[in-house]
Amino acid sequence: MSRRAKVAAPLLALLLATLCVAIAMPSNSWGAESESTTVEETASEEGAGGLAGSLPRPQLLLIHGGSFLYDDPYFEPLTRGRAIAAGFVPHYVTYPLGNLPAAVTKVREEAARLRKKFGLDRVYAYGSSAGATLTALLSGDNLVAAAVAKAPITDLRNWAWPTEKYGPEYWTSLGMDEAARARLSPYLRPQKAPLLVIQGRGDHIVPPTMNEAFAARFKRVRLWMVAGGHTTERVRPFLITRAFHWLARIAARNEAAARKSEAAH
């Protein structure tokens, strides 16, 4: 064997050994970037249950605003990453636009579907504006364990802004007469589950006085008055982070209670 071959042989053996060790290593040992991607993909996969140990992660319904007429392109980019970071599996509800009774039915069906699959104590909700109204209806009927509503329209009877914006036929176009507006106003319904309302002091679309009256009416409703207007969370996204942390604390308490109950039996 030549001198060059004698030198090359040990180097080749070392290279092959290093490659074998690398192949045998678990995938999450390759770096934090791969681990982060895996966590996000797992948390967003409902089919996998969003497992945290042996139990599913808390599930979060996310309901966009838009005057019950439009989608909100800012909503998902602002909320998805923050929901996952707070430990939730996000579920974005696509509800019928231009038909408020149908929208209510849709969000109730989605809440019921998740409750059946994961249990009431693992289903939560967050909504903005029109979506916050739908969220308040879910918490009011105890269809979620807790919820956050950012600038909800809690008294549909006395919401003047849309008729000024869209015209006097606004409510008719949504399939809502006066009786329906009263029936679907969270202010006139029970509030059974914990609800955090986030309200901008400078909101000119949903009057702050509306949600001050709403929070004063129900012990289970907590009001958080913040700086800014109707879309304050777009320039202050930390509000969304804090809202999800509030929900996550409730989810942790519910999880602890569930584990204690299981251990007792």
Detailed description of the structure:
The protein has 265 residues and is α/β, with parallel strands linked by helices. It has one domain: Rossmann fold (3-Layer(aba) Sandwich), CATH 3.40.50. 50% of the residues lie in helices and 13% in strands. The chain contains eleven helices and eight strands. The protein has helices at residues 3-24, 32-44, 75-85, 100-118, 130-140, 161-166, 170-173, 178-183, 208-217, 232-235, 238-264; strands at residues 51-52, 55-56, 59-63, 89-92, 123-128, 147-150, 195-200, 221-226. Strands 4-3-5-6-7-8 form a six-stranded parallel beta sheet, sandwiched between helices. The chain has a two-stranded antiparallel ribbon with strand order 1-2. Strand 1 and strand 2 form a beta hairpin. Helix 4 (100-118) crosses helix 5 (130-140). Mean pLDDT is 84; it is low at 2-8 and 14-53.
Describe the structure in brief.
This protein is of the alpha/beta class. The chain has 11 helices and 8 strands.
